[in-house]
Amino acid sequence: MAGETGNKDKKDARTVAIALIVLVALLFIGGFFSWPMLTEFNQVYLAPGVGIKDAAVIAFIATVLVLIIFAVASGDGIIGEIQFILIGFFAFFVVLWLLISWVF
Questions:
Q1: How many CA atoms lie within 13 A of 83 on its CB side?
Q2: Rounded to whole angstroms, how far apart are CA atoms 84 and 82?
Q3: Cα 18 to Cα 79: distance, rounded to the nearest angstrom
Q4: More exposed terminus of the chain, fewer Cβ within 10 Å: N or C?
């Protein structure tokens, strides 16, 4: 009985590790292929300055990515933390939005 549970836990841990390795590999591959687009984005949009509209888009993307990482890393996952994530999302978004438009 205990051996079956240990084997199941090992199999689950191995599956999660493989999924994380695949996701990280896909992230690096996506970053590699999007590098030319990101450099062009930098030259076109960030060189002359970022306005309120562009800052809102950048802040939204940054906020969503950070909060997804926080939700996955938390113990309950995305569903158990949704009430805190929504409040944090709006606060984080507004702060990032205003700071990006102010700095750039």
A1: 1
A2: 5
A3: 23
A4: N
